[in-house]
Amino acid sequence: MKYFLVISLSILICLAHCKFDIEEVDEFEEFEELPRTEPDLKLKDDSSSPILEKAEAEVTVEDDDEFEHFNDEEEFEGFDTERLHVDDKDPKITIASVPVPFHTKWSNYIMETLLIIGIIAYFANFFYGRSKNAQLADIWFKTHKSLLEDNFSLVGDDGKIEIENSGLIKETESTYTLWCSGRTCCEGMLVELKFIKRQDLASMLNQFLRPVKDEVQIKVDMNKEDMDTFVFCVASKKTAARYSKEMADLSVFCPERKPGANYGLTDSFSVHSELGEVSSSILDAKTVNYINKYSDVIDCLHFSDRYSGLKLTDETAVPTKLPAVKKVLIFTFTIPTDKYADPQEAISTIYPLMSFIFQCMERIKRLRISKEAKSKAEKNRLRVEEAFLKTTHAARAEAAAARKEEKKKLEKERILKEDPEKQRKWEEKEMKRQQRKKAPRMKQLKVKSM
Question: Model's pTM, two decimal places?
Fold first, then answer.
């Protein structure tokens, strides 16, 4: 595909700077005037008709010109009679022969040619990119289908009562999803294939400036009783820096990033951990060796019991209650399609990582933190909740005032519809209440007599 884009750009540049040498052709052709032929109309001479002679005798035609006074010499001063006689002659009209403006040089149609080539290149890239992404998704599903069916009772759910499509669901031209359920310790697993937008020519051109990779993101929804209280993340340095700013749970519970070398990982990884006890339990020698072995395709491991997605960036919309949270395990892997020309080889590289996911699920299910760590985690969550209530107190008070005002308005409308006497009493009551509210408050003291 890269070679195709380079060739297309080369053609566009050559067409913009080169001129075609074509033999010059006469741009103007003389048009031969066709001889004008006047129709030979032969009229019958009916002058000998006695009826016509009688009519001519009776009819008198007055040949008076109503504009004759304009030719009177005594009417105007300096009247040129000679010029008048010259103008009476028939004017000579010369019609110029104008050729058809047809250009025969290709250099005059450079913009049109570039536009046509651009349209053809866009549609060719669209169909090629769409088929390429569909091929990658089909290969991934066929490669992992048997392993998924061994671990889940349901592989592929389209959300309908009677499942019509038990395979991948196409969300966009570059995104495919797969839902699996029916396994212990988890409610389900969502697989999301995020491919490069190969169907978009602008994205492919941007690929030269900001290259991105094909990704597989797997999110496991754990049962509440099968995961303890902690937040943990291992990610590449670039992803860790972005997640610490965007993810709500990481930015609140463990914003500090630690180098992966402290835990035996390669320098390309960073670690976020709320509890040190959890880091040492998860990152044992076997797990560290496995992560280092597939360090080129592992992008992120995110385990959290307070996962709520991205942080709210809209400051105008202040939430009045805490967002809903889930206990999830999120795994993000990259597909090395840039290193392998064959898509089957690229997807086979990440195939062992699916078994690694099931091992992590079983380990998290068995993991139980100590009482001290549990108490520390509970204090952190209580502190976050109190800070949230303080920041949203004004918003909640304003919302309560608005609800009270709306309730009062509805009560007034109800009273106005029922009875005028009730309306008068309600207005008097409201007036007294307003007067008491405006009156200064005084404290009454009782003095005992001596």
Answer: 0.68
